Structures are given as structure tokens and as C-alpha cells.
Amino acid sequence: MMRPSASCVGLLLAVMCLGNLYCKGRGGAGGEGGQAVAGENRPAAGEGLSAGGAVDTGRVETVGLPDGSRVMKKNRTVIRLSKTFNQKERVLDLDGEAIFEIVADAHRPFIIHTRNLEIAVIGTETRMRVDAYRSNAGEQVDLLEGRLRVKKSYHSDTDNEAEFLEGGEMIMINRDIDLMEKEKLDSAELSKLRKSVFP
Question: Whole-angstrom Cα distance, residue 26 to residue 127?
């Protein structure tokens, strides 16, 4: 008996997930407009803007958000929008790796929740890369343009202070050793990241 290839299984799962999201967005079962909610401002687990297949093919997808911001995400990356996204605030949950181009809006904060971090845009147009798979202890945020306030999403026994980033800086966190460090991006890495961002 022939077994389907891993890429076929991944494609099938992606089509099924997108079809499910399309139905929810058209008034089917689930959250309002396909945007699930857990509590006031945290997205719920299990539903989202998009869900990739089980196999990482390295494919990158560009997704437009309701506020005009754009995201380039890897195919296994899951982004969940809060129910009130683009109303009083713009809150989303990220599991994976993505490059964000965020539209400035001083009246509606843009906040990204990951397993280890809360990343808040400080009022300016922002471009950044976030590598934050829930299965990994470590996460990284590379800021190309804009300003960010980044803090741990969990209570730490050592340090709960937020860090403020400017363009050309990065932050790394490792939850296993409860360490968060801010550094400057080296010029070669910064140049490489800028080339991978939206044209």
C-alpha cells in the first residue's frame, strides 16, 4: 500500500485548516469572524488566523492583518488574533517565526504574546522578526525599525523589568535558565534581515 508523502499530508492539513477558518469567517461555528478569544485580550488556543501543516517545508506566506499590518510567516507558524483585534487594541498570539511590518497607531497598541514574552510596539511603524516556537525554551526578537517594550510573559524570581529596544537591537530569552538579554545586532545580520523584509 502506498503511503502519502509528508508534504502531501502537510498540504492536506493546511487546506483543511484554511477551509475551516473560511467557514468560521462566514458565520459558521466558532469565534466571531474566525478570531477566537480567551479572557479579555489573549487569543484562545486552537483557533487562529492561519495554521500550517505538520511538516515544515520552509515555505513563507504573507498575511495581511485587519489593521493594514503585514506578516511574513513560516508555514508551521500559528497566529491567533484576539476577538477585539483592531478595536481598542491589536493583540495577537504567536507560535512560530514571522517578520512583522506593523502600521503605526498611537491609539491602538500592537501587542504580541509568545510563550515567554510580551512584545509591545511603542507608537511607531515597526519592522521586526520574532522567532518564538512554543516548543523551544529560547526566543528571539530582532528589531529592524521602530521602538519596542519587551518583558517576560511569566513571573521571574530574578528580574521582571521590561527592556526597551530601538532599531538595530535584539533581545533573547531562555526560560529554562530565566535569562533575558538585550544586544545590538551586528551589521551583517542586520543587512541580511533587511533584505528578507517586505519589498
Answer: 31
Q: What is the pLDDT of residues 127-148, one digit of tens each?
A: 999 999 999 999 999 999 999 9
Return the C-alpha cell found at 97.
517565526
Residues with Cβ within 8 Å of residue 53, at least 6 apart in sequence: 9, 10, 11, 12, 13, 14, 75, 76
Query: Considering the chain, what is the average pLDDT of its residues?
Result: 77
Q: How far apart are CA 115 and CA 83, in angstroms?
A: 19
**Which grid cell sits at 12?**
492536506
Radius of gyration of the chain (CA): 17
Which residue pairs, CB below 8 angstroms and at least 24 apart, start in 62-65?
Answer: 62/198, 65/90, 65/92
For cell 515544515, the residue is 56
Which secondary-structure segment (H or E) carries 121? strand 117-121
- Residue 125 reports pLDDT greater than 90: yes
Distance CA 80, CA 193 (A): 24
- The Cα–Cα gap between 90 and 69 comes to 10
Q: What's the rounded mean pLDDT across residues 159-170?
A: 94
Which of 132, 133, 111, 130 lies closest to 121 in space, CA to CA? 111
Give dist(CA 55, CA 175) in Å, integer.
26
Torsional sign, CA 75, 73, 137, 92? negative
The answer to whether 66 and 57 are in contact (CB under 8 A) is: no
